[in-house]
Amino acid sequence: MHRPDLPIIIQGGMGVAVSDWRLARSVSRLGQMGVVSGTALDVVLVRRLQNGDVGGHIRRAAAHFPIPDVVKRVFARYFKPSGDTIKKRFKSHPMGRLKPSRNLLDLQVLANFVEVFLAKEGHDGMVGINLLTKIQAPTLPSLYGAMLAGVDAVLMGAGIPREIPKVLDKLADGLPAELKLDVKDAEKDKPFWLRFDPAEFCGDNLTKLKRPKFFPIISSAVLAKMFARDEGVDGFIVEGPTAGGHNAPPRGKLQLDDNGEPIYGERDDADLAAIAEFGLPFWLAGSYGEPERVVDALEAGATGVQVGTAFAYAEESGFSPEVKARVIAQSKAGSAAVFTDPVASPTGFPFKVVSVPDTMSEQNLYEKRERVCDLGYLRTAYRIDDETVGWRCASEPVRDYVRKGGDETETIGRKCVCNALMASIDLGQVQKSGDEELPLVTSGDDVANVARFLKPGAETYSAADVVEYLLRDVPAARR
Length: 479
Prior knowledge:
By secondary structure, this protein is α/β, with parallel strands linked by helices. 30% of the residues lie in helices and 14% in strands.
């Protein structure tokens, strides 16, 4: 479906600040849709501030935040003008909860505002934000912060975000919004709700906001049909199992191959003809990083493609320079490989892990790490009583998980994805033991071929190199 008002390429919203504002801004300025990752942006903000806000970008964006008192409170708590000259422990910040403190709300709203503001700065291209449905606690204030900065689109996967269109409507009108919290063992007639009131947060600064487009990330025509019936859904991202990060589990009973990876079959292939019949724009994701695959998607009726892995190792991405250099070198040598780990993520979703030396992809380093859960984004809520929920994570210390009612077998092989992804962008914690958190690199299967973007003699490539390559075979009239 050719839509000249919509981009052919959507850059994937990857990891924790891998798809940061620099990458999204670069892609958007090229006429495509840049996307910032909304995952754990409050921690990213806190740690960037403690590192001295290199370049002054946070301060520049925060100067445009409509509630100056929020900025003052956050900077008073976390900003270190000189930054850290040696590796130190980052100051902790509050974890998500059913009824968050004002401190946490300040961080969540401001962090998302800053990231989107910087991504949109200096151009009029489309900028989206990607959130994980499974990470529920920060969703409402995160969306509001992004909307305060004028975000153009919201993309959500890793679950079924059916309540989000109505949430966006209410937040845009300045009305209280609520989201049902998934709580283990909760009684059906006594649900728990996450709530956010823009008027309470903004006070006299409350205004109506632009309502962004909403694109759920789906894996089947069945989900497309369900969403197509709902008002406020503006299109789909149709993601296959070769895409990076969290994947939808295979349909039917989970089966593993000889390498221990989930087996996907024909039942897991989306019916594109059926999806096209709903008349909504859709983009295809998962190994669409080749010019001929972009043309294939357009000929199948798609508006375009979502590409993540190719952009993840571009100069503008948030991966640390060391991570990018290692993976690009592996790709050049033909040794870059991805393992779809069925148990690494505490969410229970299969999670793609790149095998990189000296990272948490190595079993001995995983076993050596002392378990700690101090970020808590992938925790599961469980019912304590009719008014109280607790939180547990299959990657936390086993005794704690069991004490909270968890099954010990669910802890086997689970990795602290939160801390590891922070380390992948050079914002890793030094724990009380003195041990520094190690990275965990996630990418799609296309990581094996990212070296193709290198020009002769070059060691790095840019987002512009990727866009130029992807659109090579698309007629100019369709771009």
